[in-house]
Amino acid sequence: MSGIYIHIPFCKKACHYCDFHFSTSLKYADEMVEAICKEIKFKKDRITESIGSIYFGGGTPSILSQHALQKIFDAINTNFHVNANAEITIETNPDDLTSQKIKELNQLPVNRLSVGIQSFFNEDLIWMNRAHNAIEAEDCIKRSQDAGFENLTLDLIYGYPLLTDEKWNFNISKALSLEVPHISAYALTVEPKTALAQFIKTKKQNPISEGQSAEQFIILMDKLEKAGFEQYEISNFAKPGHYAVHNTNYWRGVNYIGIGPSAHGFDGRNRYMNPANNAQYLQTIEHNKLPEVIETLSVNDRFNEYIMTALRTIWGVDLEKIKLEFGQEFLEETKHNLRSFDDKGWLLLSQDKIKLTQSGKLFADQIASELFIVNE
Ligand code: SF4
């Protein structure tokens, strides 16, 4: 079943490390919701089967009012058939999750909350320039659970200078004590054009340590495995039966449409990319046009994308699929490229599937790039 991704490009504050597309001005929020509803209508023929997942990402979708979110749901339901069991996720920030907000979200078709906790330490949240504090981080989860939201996922960040191993252990233990069925954890990366990159450049901040990130990734995998979580993707851990439908479909190459500024869509062959610019997006939709750029992926692009995403998952890279979808030549070259990993202990090959070992997970990107096939 296909999916819908909706990008809500607004945030209260700019987190220092973030390079997602957002504006901290809500001046055009109403116009944005109207434009998003229009884009949903324009794309109604792109998906004819039922929708199995809807994902509100951003930015901070929980910044929108119940009325605005309801409008978007009305547009979706008017133009698509949403499966009765569809997973409907909204990204939220702890400071937005007041009792009233949770009540409102409960009245919408939302059935999964993704909460941007990042850390349970105030000093870390201040360093990141997050809009919430440590008490809100903990309380919002309990409030959501008391209101009946059981399908919750938390985001955590590791590998930043303030985070000692002791604090990282505490953050993971705290997340586990909240009894959520899903946790996503990301190593901090320094993206160009972010405040963090500027701080490092001007020496206000020490560079990020790769060694620290690797060590904390190992702590993460170890602790979550002991707590009964399955690492079904490098950065995603779930209790059995709680894998994210939307993300899993994305990694498995299922079709989805992207709505809103900077959103991407994919139909198995073409990638559709909206501009990461609110004004340009609004103006183009206003003129009843789609603002997207379409990139048709070459066979090599599709193969490399498959390697990149599948290798990071619990399902691994399927050699039989490579043969069927990309042909014997791709299969032979992949087998040839695999030989360079023979004595490293990073890959497991079993039943025609290539999977990362625990130590291989530390080098996922490097391994994937060595398996890529590029046009000569
Ligand atoms: S709330 Fe999320 S999207 Fe917004 S600036 Fe922070 S990390 Fe980026």
Automatic annotation (TrEMBL):
<comment type="function">
    <text>Probably acts as a heme chaperone, transferring heme to an unknown acceptor. Binds one molecule of heme per monomer, possibly covalently. Binds 1 [4Fe-4S] cluster. The cluster is coordinated with 3 cysteines and an exchangeable S-adenosyl-L-methionine.</text>
</comment>
<protein>
    <recommendedName>
        <fullName>Heme chaperone HemW</fullName>
    </recommendedName>
</protein>
<dbReference type="InterPro" id="IPR007197">
    <property type="entry name" value="rSAM"/>
</dbReference>
<comment type="similarity">
    <text>Belongs to the anaerobic coproporphyrinogen-III oxidase family. HemW subfamily.</text>
</comment>
<dbReference type="GO" id="GO:0006779">
    <property type="term" value="P:porphyrin-containing compound biosynthetic process"/>
</dbReference>
<keyword id="KW-0411">Iron-sulfur</keyword>
<keyword id="KW-0143">Chaperone</keyword>
<dbReference type="InterPro" id="IPR010723">
    <property type="entry name" value="HemN_C"/>
</dbReference>
<dbReference type="Pfam" id="PF06969">
    <property type="entry name" value="HemN_C"/>
</dbReference>
<dbReference type="InterPro" id="IPR023404">
    <property type="entry name" value="rSAM_horseshoe"/>
</dbReference>
<dbReference type="Pfam" id="PF04055">
    <property type="entry name" value="Radical_SAM"/>
</dbReference>
<keyword id="KW-0949">S-adenosyl-L-methionine</keyword>
<keyword id="KW-0408">Iron</keyword>
<dbReference type="InterPro" id="IPR058240">
    <property type="entry name" value="rSAM_sf"/>
</dbReference>
<dbReference type="InterPro" id="IPR004559">
    <property type="entry name" value="HemW-like"/>
</dbReference>
<dbReference type="InterPro" id="IPR034505">
    <property type="entry name" value="Coproporphyrinogen-III_oxidase"/>
</dbReference>
<dbReference type="GO" id="GO:0005737">
    <property type="term" value="C:cytoplasm"/>
</dbReference>
<keyword id="KW-0004">4Fe-4S</keyword>
<dbReference type="GO" id="GO:0051539">
    <property type="term" value="F:4 iron, 4 sulfur cluster binding"/>
</dbReference>
<dbReference type="GO" id="GO:0004109">
    <property type="term" value="F:coproporphyrinogen oxidase activity"/>
</dbReference>
<feature type="domain" description="Radical SAM core">
    <location>
        <begin position="1"/>
        <end position="230"/>
    </location>
</feature>
<dbReference type="GO" id="GO:0046872">
    <property type="term" value="F:metal ion binding"/>
</dbReference>
<keyword id="KW-0349">Heme</keyword>
<keyword id="KW-0963">Cytoplasm</keyword>
<keyword id="KW-0479">Metal-binding</keyword>
<dbReference type="InterPro" id="IPR006638">
    <property type="entry name" value="Elp3/MiaA/NifB-like_rSAM"/>
</dbReference>
